[in-house]
Amino acid sequence: MMAQYLEIKRDHQDCLLFYRMGDFYELFFEDAKLASQTLGIVLTKRGKHLGEDIPMCGVPIERSDDYLHKLIASGHRVAVCEQTEDPAEARKRGNKSVVKRGVIRLVTPGTLTEERLLEPGRANLLVALVRQRDQDEKSLFGLAAVDISTGAFDVYVTEFGALGALLARLEPREIVASETLLADAALLGRLQDGGAAITPLNEKAFFGRAAEKKLLDYYHLGTLDGLGPLSHLEINAAGLCLAYIEQTQFAAKPRLNRPSRVETRATLEIDAATRVNLELTRSQSGQRQGSLLSALDRTVTSAGARTLAEWLAAPLRDIEKIALRQDAIAFFVDDPLLRAELRKILRAAPDMARALGRLALDRGGPRDLAALRDGMFTAKQCGAVLAEKKPPFLLAKAVEFLADLDTALPQLLGAALADDLPLDRRGGNFISAAFDQQLDEARALRDESRRIIAALQGRYCEKAETRQLKIKHNNFLGYFIEVNQAQGEKLLKAPFNADFIHRQTMADAMRFSTTELSQLESRITNAADEALAIESRIFGELVAQALDKSAELEATASALAGLDVLTALAEAASEAGWSRPRVDNSLAFQIEAGRHPVVEAALRARGEPFVPNDCDLSGIMGAKGKDIGGKLAVITGPNMAGKSTFLRQNALIAILAQIGSFVPAKTAHIGVVDRLFSRVGASDDLARGRSTFMVEMVETAAILNQATEKSLVILDEIGRGTATYDGLSIAWAVMEHLHEVNRARALFATHFHELTHLRQKLSRLVNLCMRVSDWRGDVVFLHEVAQGSADRSYGVQVASLAGLPTTVVERARKILAELELNDLRTPVERLVADLPLFAAPLQAPEPKHKDALRDALAEIDPDDMTPRQALEALFNLKRVAAHD
Ligand SMILES: Nc1ncnc2c1ncn2[C@@H]1O[C@H](COP(=O)(O)OP(=O)(O)OP(=O)(O)O)[C@@H](O)[C@H]1O
């Protein structure tokens, strides 16, 4: 057996091997040590290898999902090795022969399907990445994202610059890419940012024609035209993904939708840093709690929760699509009774997509079939309730689809499945009585035989003249008669031994059999086996029928999820008094009485009010109706006054508006934002050797390089991580660039009050400040945003509120008074007047030094030169150097 183990293990070095032995998966050698440590289970030993004890540990089959969950969560991959033949078959080859085994599946983070291994409210994406360089050596990436638990399959094409944003949006659990690609350190760093498992693949076999063939075979197509227009990059990425699925799933074939192209330009692009800063799906500490998603989520199904997370990760840019969602939400806001009724029905909707995914992989059970049945009925019910009203377009389409749904399958499942369903199908008893005549007969025989056993026990008691006789069952002996020692001695003798045949003597009992009992046993076993075989056949037939309808089932599941999200967004909007924003293609950004949904909810929980604030960054039209660009608001005010909250709330309102949701504001008018950037708060990235200041500058650079006049930019205290004048100068130049070049709508919070003087130069700059009142020397935060600039920072007062020792606070007051006396601001005012506007030297400066020597060197190709040519080249270089 060890030889077999070692042979299988050799092919799966990068996985822990779960080796099936009876009712356990056993692990050996290093695998056992690792698993026992990770899982906290006992490490034992079994036999010897090369003279050494073999470490071993095991997990029981019925709890293996829990153990798998822990191992995957701690970054391991697991190869599941099953017995591939009946032990009886192996015995036929001789008593010592080993049962055949083989790996049937690799369990990796991106290929999970089991309910207990998956997060209900989160997609479980596997991403395959390929690269292509164009003539300019620019990289383009093809990316395929598959969720084998639901069948979702999307393909994307993106540039390196936008790759991080796309990955941050998708949040894959696992990324597969070629070894060559992963050798690129910059790229690898970007892939590692999201914390996904990274799996290298030897790619050659999967590209080009091989990738095409993978797709054709998978979908049984003769030509790729059936998949719509896909580029080579998309085909390669999809092919790589399918290749990895094959490598991990072996014979099992997940049900996957056909790959569909997603245009990244159709959605609001939000880079990874901004997602983290704005705490969209997770708070800064990594929890769901405290994020926008958790404050917003009123969904009642897991599929709905996943869809909401997807919407929030990819807000739209198409104003028509946004309006369709808004119409549906408004409809539900206006009809709370209908909303409540639908939400009540939806609460019973099971996770159809994932149930279907498991059934397709032959990992499903009776409850998965029931999920399809219940899901279909729920969908029909929702459709009927909605049809009574006059719903807007998006919902009317759903009603139409649901009305046409054929109920033959759920009816069949309804008739076939028993009321109480076991989790596992192997034990049978999930098909209801009266569904199949053959099954009923086998079951009757099986159950009747059991009654006969009970009667037999009574008869044998009489025959053996004892009341202590029992008929029992175990796997080794089958059915047997058990009596105590004294009775056993008696049965060994005449006349009893004519009927009772001795089988086993135990310490305190003896076991017997009879010819009659043996015959009965085979009848019982046969009947039970037959019943099980029939149930298994019926299960297979039902699954086949369900899979035949998989496209319809999938569409039903997504209609239910969509309904859940739309009613949930209406629920959130009604609860918190949100309003429908006006979203168009202008450069407007006008929020009246906006609020931060997460901070407001936290304050409300503490019984404190949130102060709403207006914000107007709307673009200014130039002559001839041409947009000149958005406004740039500079916000000053003390720490703790609410600057960051104000900045973030406006970004969140834009995101909510573009997912089609209502927004926490009295009114809002937003011109669609193409990209959202934020540089908020301090964080360093020591793992990648970047200080706080460096991270800040890298993120700021990305903003200045990419923001357009349709973007929204949020900058919080740029330049504070370095010396005052360096910081001020950087912040100054950044603002000029934003105003003159990017022309994006922007909010800029700063402690450099000097920057407010730029108002004189920059026409679209507005100064805002957080109002505070000074009460007997103490600062009181009003959290109100007002026009104008803050007169002072109140830093010392805030420090005193934070509990700095009084001596330090007093000393700081004195120093501040000295500094103010010297009036450091005067030179800045002068600078504003004197410095030419940023626009003047906007063209990139000429390279400092034209390097002729370097150019000459670049032209030399040593591989292509004779020694004589090399010598000439050397002389030439000396000449160039002399002139330079
Ligand atoms: N509009 C508001 N209404 C009521 N409370 C608010 C409001 N805005 C902020 N707050 C409260 O003030 C606290 C501080 O806000 P915030 O972090 O936005 O201040 P800040 O000016 O950015 O401070 P710092 O400069 O120190 O980062 C918040 O945690 C919140 O409790």
Automatic annotation (TrEMBL):
GO terms for cellular component: cytosol. Keywords: ATP-binding, Coiled coil, DNA damage, DNA repair, DNA-binding, Nucleotide-binding. Pfam families: MutS_I (PF01624), MutS_II (PF05188), MutS_III (PF05192), MutS_IV (PF05190), MutS_V (PF00488). One of its GO terms (molecular function) is ATP binding. Residues 711-727 form the DNA mismatch repair proteins mutS family domain. Residues 510-537 form a coiled coil. One of its GO terms (biological process) is mismatch repair. Belongs to the DNA mismatch repair MutS family. This protein is involved in the repair of mismatches in DNA. It is possible that it carries out the mismatch recognition step. This protein has a weak ATPase activity. This is DNA mismatch repair protein MutS. It comes from Rhodoblastus sphagnicola. The gene is mutS.
